[in-house]
Design a protein that fits this description.
two-stranded parallel sheet; about 110 residues
């Protein structure tokens, strides 16, 4: 639900959920030619490169495109944000790392 809300500001963007299919097969079913994958660091690159090769073996008609995160988000992960929750001033600490919609949900769950 948070992704759907955040993605409304982007034109021609859909957030969809699917199960029981490989991503490239689902993309092909939706007539998508590309799968966009984000990378924060070299660990992500290693994993995403492996997945690109597997996806290409499964369906060479769908191409993987890598997107590199801006430096201000390069080391941000859900685990990092979760680890900041709890101590004094945590609300202030996480605000810079997540979109407003996500921040509101986190406050609703853990905060004030």
């Amino acid at each position: 639900s948070m992704l759907k809300k955040i993605s409304k500001k982007f034109h021609n963007t859909n957030v969809e959920v699917f199960e029981g299919k490989y991503l490239v097969d689902y993309a092909n079913q939706r007539n998508a030619q590309y799968v966009l994958r984000g990378m924060r660091n070299s660990n992500d690159f290693t994993y995403e490169n492996m997945m690109m090769n597997v996806n290409n073996d499964l369906n060479p008609d769908v191409e993987t495109i890598f997107l590199v995160y801006p430096k201000e988000f390069a080391e941000v992960s859900s685990n990092l944000v979760k680890g900041l929750i709890g101590p004094e001033r945590w609300e202030e600490a996480i605000k810079q790392y997540v979109p407003e919609t996500v921040y509101d949900k986190i406050l609703e769950k853990y905060g004030k």
